[in-house]
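It would be a great kindness if you could assist me with a short task in structural biology. The matter concerns a single protein, recorded as an amino acid sequence and a row of backbone structure tokens. Kindly check, if you would, that the fold set down in the tokens agrees with what the sequence suggests. Thank you for your consideration; the sequence and its tokens are set out here:
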Amino acid sequence: MKIYTRTGDRGDTSLYGGQRVPKDALRIEAYGTIDELNSVLGTVRAVNTDEEIDSILTQVQHRLFELGADLATPRSVSKKRIKRFEPEDAKPLEKIIDAFGEHLRPLRSFILPGGSPVAARLHFARTVCRRAERTVVRLSRNEEIGEGITVYLNRLSDMLFVLARYANHVAKVPETKWKS
């Protein structure tokens, strides 16, 4: 099977279900940013040595593929194989946030992104996640996508923030407090 099809050479692509849309359509931007986030998580995993963090990020990467498929499939297309995200899909992320948050000191000020190589990359992933969330919110104003995707992305960015703080904690790298 060849990797190139030439069907997108004129600037359009197919959604799952067959509909052709421009490559700069908001729906394509949304799932493209999810793909970018997934790649950034791959860079985190490449430098991470903590097995627990790796296991979590691997699961998230799989979920992001499902989320991308959800976004690539308009709600008007009824495909039984597509997992549609619901608000309760964020619950496992909340459990991770709570579990890892127990190891951390409460925040009393804003902190600057950075620290250990793993934490810095997790902070970067968080910002890409927030951008994906903003894009999905814009998409939701124009098209029906359900509410589960935005809930999941909102919680995922929170989880990435907590994991970044945890990675610094484990590496014994102090957080840099923001000073105005």
Q: What stands out?
A: The CA atoms of residues 10 and 22 lie 9 Å apart. Strands lie at 12-14, 20-22.
